[in-house]
Amino acid sequence: xxANPFNGFxxxxxxxxxxxxxxxxxxxEKPVVSWFEIISENYMIDGGRPLxxxxxxxxxxxxxxxxxxxxxxxxxxxxxxxLKRLKALVKRTKTPWLTDHLCWGxxxxxxxxxxxxxxxxxxxxxxTAQKIREVRDFLEIPIAVENVSSYAEFHVSEMTEWxxxxxxxxxxxxxxxxxxxxxxxxxxxxxxxxHDYVNGVPAExxxxxxxxxxxxFEKYILDTHDHPVIDPVWKLYxxxxxxxxxxxxxxxxxxxxxxxxxxxxxxxxxxxxIAEMAVAS
Amino acid sequence: MNLLDIQHRMLxxxxxxxxxxxxxxxxxxxxxxxxxxxxxxxxxxxxLSSFERxxxxxxxxWFRVLASLEEDFRGLRAIIGPRRFEVLSKAYLxxxxxxxxxxxxxxxxxxxxxxxxxxxxxxxxxxxxDMVRLEWAEIEAFDGAAEPVLVPGDVLASDxxxxxxxxxxxxxxxxxxxxxxxxxxxxKDDSDGEMASNAISERQKQTRVRKxxxxxxxxxxxxxxxxxxxxxFKRVEPEAFKFLHALREGKSLSAAVVLAFQGHxxxxxxxxxxxxxxxxxxxxxxxxxxxxxxxxxxxxxLGRQS
Lengths: 281, 306
Description:
B: 6 strands
């Protein structure tokens, strides 16, 4: 199910995140890339070089917006200024769907600029879903929420993370941006089987998949987006597309960013799994 | 414990400054054991205690915001030194945590805050404040709105005493020290420093700062502007600066000229020549503009609807 209501009935292939070190290469060499993902907040500005570059990218490429600070799980209502700027950017990019994280990060207007984990409770699911609906109604565009990497669990949780994700997206009737690297990171930090997670989410709601690398420390794993994708994460990816079908896929590489070719080639490895899945089916 | 209780407690802990060893504080601000507090809402696992799991977020928060502030205020850091800058940054972020969805705005209240906390920038307070204003102006100029460029001749043909609008991204700064030169030099040191040791680079910076700080204050009228999406500093004469200020305040051309040359005994023909020269120069830099851009109009219209 590559095209579904949650990704605007599009059929995108394998893309990469648009990052500053690659601007010059992309604009001068014009490489063939299925699509780029942008961090919305980097372009929710009034003018200047970032928007100038974005406009040039938009002339040639398809762009999907990915946010990092909507904080669907935060207690306060969506910030109006944030929403207005986001909607202006949506009009500019014509993104077919929009993603942000299933997390919280602000309280009473104070921002942590982090993706803080949710307690997996029915109360949290209800409040989060309500906020996703409000944002979608304002933006008038399909929304998919991304599972985050986490390093803490709460005593009050009443269900697993994938049950919570399912509860939220069904209450909100929205899509899922399934980050298989985040599933792997959290599975190692919280001792669960990552395949149970991938098998447990409603596959028909998967609008997009994220792949990335991470950093391993002695007692935990951090989601650093500064390495190639490791084999166990590719295995999760293979299982995810087996369930969800050939789905828009995006490699994130945000730190120690190598050359454009290296990042793009790493992303394109996903095509092998897509081809194997097609043969198997 | 409900969702809001957890979020309040967790954010309070995450935003509490780290110890000098970059670990989470053993006690909360109100004196409770942080181990106890963390244990009340965070589960331990077989490798990490509740405290250690919460500490990951605490450290990530401080590493992220301190790095962001350092990137935006390298000039201030060079003036007061890296250790004092870190102390200042922590104190500022405790008093003025982010209230914006973007880290771009993290330093927006730094000048205001420093004016009531001058102990962090003594004995070079005036120099440091000038640098903070310049570095913030650079951020504003980098991604500020640009309106369609106006050719002054077009307006003068239809209105003999028109109002000229300056590009919103243009920043006008009246400075007491030549911090524009200093910032350029510090950045050069930073890039040269990539090839030298950090210690040498820091010494070079300190020498340069001391040289500027020893100078008598030198009034500088500075315009922070953009050419081809890159930010530049342009010094202007005091009269030109007053003239630009008057235009920004919405004064008409004739009123701006009067304000700019108040107290000057100058021939009209010479005055006209000076003003014409300014317009030629500033027009070529695209400093004059028409009305709101479509993007701004769209954002404004959304504001009216909500």
